[in-house]
Structure formats: C-alpha cells, structure tokens
Amino acid sequence: MLRILPASLVVFMAGLGVLAYYSRAMLYNEARDKAEEMAWRSSAHVTARMERACLVASHARDAILSLRGTEKGISRESYTELLKDLVRSDPSIFGIYTAWEPNAFDGRDEEYRNKPDHDDTGRYIPWVARAGDTVAVDPCTYYLDENDPDSDWYHGTKKAMHNRAYDPASWEFQGGTVTVVDYIVPIIEDGAFSGVLAAEVEISDLQNEIKAIRPYETGFAAVISGSGVVIAHPDDSALGEPYASPRAGDILSAINDGKVFSLEEKSEMLGTDVLQIYVPVSITGTGQHWAFLVAVPLDKVFAPVHRMMWAALGVALAGVLVLGGMLWPISGKISKPILNIALLAERAGEGDLSITRDEFEVDTRDELGTTADALGAMLKAQREAMLSAMDAALSTNKRSENLAALAEETSATVDQILNMIRDLATSSKENAEVLERLNTGVGRIADGAEASSSSASEGASVAANVRSLSESTVKSMGSTVESIEKVRRLADRSRTDIAALSDSVNRVTQFVDTITKIADQTNLLALNAAIEAARAGEAGRGFAVVADEVRKLAEDSSRAAGEIRNIIGTLGENADNSVASAEETAELAKDAASEVERARSLLNEALKAIVTINELMTSIANTSGEQATSCVEMARAVEKATLESSVIARNAMEIKDSAEETSKASESTALEAEELNTLSLRLEETLSFFKLEGGTRNGPTRLPPVAKSSRAKKSAR
C-alpha cells in the first residue's frame, strides 16, 4: 500500500505543473495586454508632438504663400520675424527653418550675399531656434550638394515632393549641442518646387517621459523610427544609433506596415528575458511610421507563479510524510488476501476454471470480500459458458456435414439445367440475327421509296411555286418599267435644282470674303488701340482691356469666316458631283427600262416549260408513294418477328445467368459447410484447454471429417 505514496506524489506534481502552466499563460497574456495598452497610450503623446510640428510647419508655409500672393508681397526680414514669433509662442517647438531655391523667394539673392543670416549664395535660408530665453537666427547649412547625405533634408524633400519626418540629429547651435526631430514640408507654387520649411521638436522632454515608464518596476520603453534609428531610449548613448536586435529586420518590416509586433528575447540592458511589444506610431501627413516599444521583464511577470510552486511543493512533501505514517500499519492486513487473489487469478489465466469461492479464503464483508464474491461468480459463469460452447460445437459439426451433401446434389441439378438453357439461348440469338438482317434490307427499300416520293412531291410543289412566281414577275416588270421612267424624270429635275444651288454657293463665298476682310481690319485697329492704351499708362488700362476683347472678337470672326469658306467649298464640290450623278442616273434609267422589257419576254417562254415539268413531277410522286406504303407494311412484319426472337434470346440469357449464379451459390455453400466443420473442430480443441470439473482437462470429441465433393475441390483450386 505504501507504493501509493510515490504515485500520489507524481499525480500531485503533475496537477501542480498543469496549474503552473495555465497560471503562467494567464500572467503572460495579462502582461502582454498591459504592455500593449501602455504602448498605445504613450504612443498617442508622440503622435501629438509630431502633429503639433506638422501644424506649425504647414501654417508657416501657408502664411508665406498667402503673403507672397498679395500686391506688396513680404520681405525677408518680416518673414524671419514671423518665424521668431512662432518659436517664442510655442514651447513644444525648438526651432523653425526654411530654405528656398535660388531667387525663388523674392529674386534678390545677389543683394543678400554674405548679409546677416545669409551665406555667400544670398539665398533665403534662415534657421530660427530657441537659445535660452532668446531666439537666435543662423543660416542653414548642408543644402548645396545633393550627393551629400547630410543634405537629404533639402534635396530628399525636393525629390519626394511631400511631407517627411527625419530621424533624430544633433546640431551645434549657439555654443551647445541639441538633439531634435525634424518635420519638413515642401513649398510648392504652381506645381513647381520653391523650397522647404521645417519645424524641429527637441526630444529631451520625450527622453524624460520614456525614462519614467517602468512596467513591472524594471521594464523600459523606447521609440524607434521606421529606418531603425533610436529616437528615445532610457540609455542616452543609444539615441540616434541603429536599434540593436537579432530580429531587427522583422521589427522594421512590421513598423513600416503599421502593424503590432511582439517577441521574446534577452535584454542586454536588464540581463534577463523580456517580452517586447511594438505598436505603430503614425506620422501625420508623411505615410511614415515609428514604433513605440514597451519591454516587460518575464522574471517579474512569472514571479507569483514561482512563489506558488515552491509553496505547493513544500505542502506536497509534508502531506506525503503524514500519509505514509497513517498507511504503514494498515498495509499488513490487506496485502495477504490480495496476494492469494492474485495467485488464484493466475491459475484462471492458465485455463483452470474449477476454482470455487471457498478457495479465496476471504470471509470479510469489506471491499476484499466483495471482490472475492465477484471473482467466484465470474469463474462459475465461465465454466457454464464453456460447457455450452462444447455442446454447440458438436451440434454444428453434424449440421455442416449434412449441408455439404445437400449443396453437392443441388449443384449437379443446376448444371443440367444450365446446359439446356445455353442451347436455347444460342438458337434464339441466331434467329434474331437473321431477322434483323432481313428487317434492315426491307427498311432500306422502304426508305428509298419514301425518299423518292417525297422528292417528287417537293419537285412538283417547287415547280408550282416557280410558275406562280414567274407569273407575278411578269406582272411586276410592267410596273418596274413605269417606275424607271419616273426615276429618269426625277433625275432631270434634280440636276436643274442642284445647278441652281451651286450658283447660290458661289454668291455666299463672295460674302465670306468680305467678312474676312472686315475682321482683319478690326484686328489691326484693336492692336493699334492696345498700343495707345499702353502709352497712356494707368489711365489707359481700362481701354486696353476693351481693345483686347475687340481683338479677340476679330480673331474669332476671321476664324469663323475661314471655317464657313471651307464648308462652302465642300458644299460646292458636292453640288457639282450631284449634277454629274443626276445625269448618269437618267441614262442608266433609260437603259434599265429596255433590259426589263426584254426580260419579260423571256420569262413568258420559261413559264410554258415550267407547266409541263409540274405535271411530270406530280405523276412520279404518286407512283413512289404507293411503293413506299407496301415496303413499310413488309418492314413492320419483319420487325415484329425480330423483336419476338430477341425477347426469347434475352430471356434465355437471363435464365442462364440466374442458373450460373445458383451454381456458384451451391459451390459456395459446400465450401462454407466444409469451413464450418473445420472451425467446429478447432473450437473443440480450444475448449479442451480449460479445466472445468473433476480436476482434469476436457479433451476434444473427434468427429469424422466431411468428405469434400468433386465440385467443391474444383472451386477450391
């Protein structure tokens, strides 16, 4: 019984392991959800910072574009002061800078060469930044050489022509070093690139916020750009450096796709495994994404499970010791009866079913007594079952012998019937084939006669139709001659009308020439008026507008007159062509009338021949119809005889198939009877293994084997 203790301990530990597994999974999911929620909440602050930079840069750009569109425009000094005011009024912005293409701002680059806040190019490139309590201005640098990687802030935006956010960069400014993130917008006028304007966000405040995020006391957070550069991190030395991770490629792919990404890896900064959650940070207006990272130390996450495991293990060991002390005195009273039951079960397994209830030597009313009663009853039931099985085996052997003899007699009878049916089927099949060939010949004769009758009838019908059509055609030709004469008269009238139209077109052409001359003179006068208005200066500006409109009207009139001239020319050519066509139509109508009259005479001659053909075709159709009727009656008689012979042959074949199936069934029955006899003998041999009563084993009762029939042997082979 003491063997139960190790098993109990194993079961307890297994249950504890399952509990620990699900507890770890629950804590892991909870930590993951908490880290993701923290990352989303914190990423909103980063998004707000960049949205603020986007608004400042966009408003500053829109303001200068609006002021440049006014009549007076805006000077460089005024716009620089406007940028200073923006930096002073918004503490979240470290600086604002703008850089313009050569002479794109005001066309005065030459005047501003080497002036304050300018370099030797004279281009408008102020960098306005916070310097303590004041705002300072310096010219921008690294913008001239497009092949210089440091000039990508200018030339990269020029090529992209859309908003961009840049990775952190450190600059020397006013004797100090600052680290900022730039949000740059292009300045586009009339579809052309004029320059850039950018707002800078210093990340020192963001660094402080990141350092304050400590999930599970020792965890940390970070911000990473889409190119893999660290924007904010608890370790100041990591700023601006590539983010170090074995899975950096997968992380950057997820960041740029705007997806949440998670992984487990060992943190060099914490020296332990951490769960890292990366959530996307959308940079407004750029299509770029950063990632906000929250790293959770797994040793802190699973600490409650570890404490629970150690406590449960101590309780389990104490419980095993207490249970062992309680079971030790009980085990001796139970082990001897259980051993005796095991020995008796071993005897039963060796085939001895003569064991009685008294041999178990258990007189108690507890679980052991109940077990002994059940085993005794089971052995008694098995003895009775074995005796019944032996009787059944003897009876089965007798019946299988009788069944085999009967199957042999049935098979012989079926063979005789099968031979007779085969002969009948062969004869019926031959008769059916002869009648079928006869039926085919008669059918062909009937088909030929019927086809001849049908063709003759169709020929007579066609001849009658042709006769009717010819008569109608002769009548129609008379009307056609009259219609052709009317066409000739109409063609003469059309020729006269079109000639008159051609004269009218020539007169309209003269009017168009006159309109063209007037439009040219008007255009010349408008040009002279515009020149005089320009000499008059501001006082002649209104008259210049009127003169320009008159000039446009003259040009439109000249253009319209040209189009009318082209149309009139085309119309004149068409009129000449129509006159020629009308004359040709009249000649053709005259010729057509002569040809139609001659065709009418020929049709009258053909009509007489068609009447004779119609009478001959009618006579042929009547004779062929009588022949087809006789052939059809003969074909029906032969077809009926053929069908009856086919039915007889088919029935004979079906009877033959049924007889063959019966023969096969008889053979199968004989084989099954022999197999049944063999199985009954095997059953007797198997039952002889058991010892039932009297202390001896029961030998099998041998019966003479059943002789196999000749048909059964043939099938067996």
Overall description:
The chain has 717 residues and is an alpha+beta fold. Among the domains are: 19-300, 2-Layer Sandwich (Beta-Lactamase); 492-612, Helix Hairpins. The protein has helices spanning 4-68, 76-89, 152-160, 204-212, 248-256, 298-301, 303-349, 367-536, 541-687, 710-716; strands at residues 95-100, 126-131, 134-139, 164-165, 169-173, 176-189, 192-202, 220-224, 230-232, 261-267, 272-283, 288-297. The strands form 2 sheets. Strands 1, 2, 3, 4, 5, 6 and 7 form a 7-stranded antiparallel sheet that branches. Strands 9-8-12-11-10 form a 5-stranded antiparallel sheet, with helices on both faces. The longest helix has 170 residues, at 367-536. The protein is flat, with a radius of gyration of 59 Å. It starts with a helix and ends with a helix.
Summarize the topology:
Elements: H1 4-68, H2 76-89, E1 95-100, E2 126-131, E3 134-139, H3 152-160, E4 164-165, E5 169-173, E6 176-189, E7 192-202, H4 204-212, E8 220-224, E9 230-232, H5 248-256, E10 261-267, E11 272-283, E12 288-297, H6 298-301, H7 303-349, H8 367-536, H9 541-687, H10 710-716
Antiparallel strand pairs: 1-2, 1-7, 2-3, 4-6, 5-6, 6-7, 8-9, 8-12, 10-11, 11-12
Core attributes:
single chain; disordered C terminus; 717 residues; 7-stranded antiparallel β-sheet; 5-stranded antiparallel β-sheet
